[in-house]
Amino acid sequence: MLDIQPQPLSLTDAAASKLRELTAAETSPEIGLRVYVYSGGCSGFKYGMMIEDAPTPEDKLLEANGVKVYVDGKSIDLLRGAQIDYVDTLMGAGFTVNNPNAVSACGCGSSFRTADDGGAPKGCAH
Prior knowledge:
CATH class: Mainly Beta
Order of helices and strands: EHEEEEHEEEE
Number of domains: 1
Number of strands: 9
Oligomer: single chain
Distance between the termini: 45 Å
CATH architecture: Sandwich
Strand order of the largest sheet: 4-5-2-3-9-8
Number of helices: 2
CATH superfamily: HesB-like domain
Radius of gyration: 15 Å
CATH topology: Hypothetical Protein Aq_1857, Chain: A
């Protein structure tokens, strides 16, 4: 049987457009979005994102909707199949992660737990 793996990570058109807007003035051709997962939050893991000038040797480089996305080797499995979106609502604007690996999440919106490895839950900090 063929083992089909989902794409490591994808970006919606809205997220890619916002990233191009945020990095338009940058001169580095390696500028991209770093997406990572770290231990913490009330569900066990938290998402982090930042604009990065260049990848590190441990990063997986993904091209999504015309922008570079950098994911470290430890985070890639937790983010496999996830989609980064950009939303702008009355409650605020920002990037969100829609992660099929998350089996539960916290009300703070950035903390999650997977079926295989939930991490160690912490208090929810807003």
